[in-house]
Specification:
globular; disordered N terminus; 10 helices; seven-stranded mixed sheet; eight-stranded mixed sheet; 292 residues
């Protein structure tokens, strides 16, 4: 009997240790009740859209592309969302900004943040006009700023700088790069930033970049994910938001090989559908919409 009790105890310890890491479930349910943070990489095709929920706030980071606008709105409504406390646009390319009008027209958006980059596209002009006409509080997010998401969850901005925006550099490289931090758990969001910016961030923030999870820069493009940068972040998991059979062939094989060589667990929307991460600030759980 004593041996049996010992075996049961060992089994329970193993179960706790395993479930606190990057575990996989085949459905989007079973969210731990102790988790104050839920992050969903929404499956919206070739674009980024991340839904972040705390007990106090709802945050949407990017909005997918124009052709996925209705899909995004429907997914948010299916989540029971009526209000969005913070809408954050990492940069004004269509695959990140494209769904913003759908969000602004269908939900009570309390505040809007972007990198301050002005473009002449119709998508951008309609978005900024809607924000202005609706008198929604707006703020440019630059390196060094922090946002409070509630429950002790913060978003720390590393890039871009005012100089980068003033110089009107490449839109991808001017993406908002920031870390969502909750206790011992963190996710580094990278927009479409590329290798040149990764090197700058490595020089400025090397000791701050380490994160539990990495949002793959630029949908897993070979123009991003510098080896030294990846090693400084040293994530356990990497999230790739990407459309099935996309014209860019994202994610690129060279980038996937880097991730595999570094033993990162890879989640991608084209294979896994919407990916849900929950955390209590210590451990975390990953749930895939699609079973493989």
């Amino acid at each position: 009997m004593k041996v049996l009790r010992n075996l049961i105890a060992i089994g329970l310890v193993f179960l706790v240790v395993f479930s606190s890491g990057c575990s996989i479930k085949s459905t989007s349910g079973n969210v731990p009740s102790s988790s104050n943070l839920t992050v969903k990489m929404l499956d919206v095709g070739q674009g980024d859209a991340f839904l972040i929920k705390t007990s106090q706030q709802v945050i949407l980071l990017d909005t997918g592309d124009i052709d996925a606008r209705d899909l995004l709105v429907n997914k948010l409504k299916a989540e029971g969302i009526t209000k969005i406390d913070k809408l954050i646009i990492t940069h004004p390319h269509a695959d990140h900004l494209g769904g913003a009008m759908g969000v602004l027209m269908n939900f009570d958006v309390k505040s809007v943040y972007d990198n301050g980059q002005i473009t002449t596209t119709s998508t951008y002009r309609k978005y900024i006009k809607k924000v202005t006409d609706s008198k929604i509080p707006y703020k440019q997010l630059l390196a060094g700023e922090h946002l409070d998401f509630g429950d002790g969850i913060k978003f720390i901005v590393y890039s871009p700088t005012k100089r980068m925006i003033d110089m009107e550099e490449d839109l991808n490289n001017n993406s908002i790069v920031g870390k969502l931090k909750y206790g011992d758990f963190s996710i580094l969001f990278t927009g479409d930033s590329e290798s040149a910016i990764e090197k700058e961030l490595l020089n400025k923030y090397k000791d701050e970049l380490k994160s539990t999870i990495l949002k793959s820069p630029h949908h897993g493009s070979k123009t991003s994910s510098n080896n030294a940068y990846l090693k400084a972040i040293s994530p356990e998991c990497v999230l790739i938001s990407v459309g099935t059979g996309n014209d860019y062939k994202h994610p690129h094989e060279t980038t996937l090989n880097k991730y595999k060589k570094l033993n990162f667990k890879i989640y991608r929307t084209d294979f896994d559908g919407t990916v849900t991460i929950t955390s209590d600030g210590h451990g975390y759980n990953v749930v895939k919409e699609k079973a493989q």
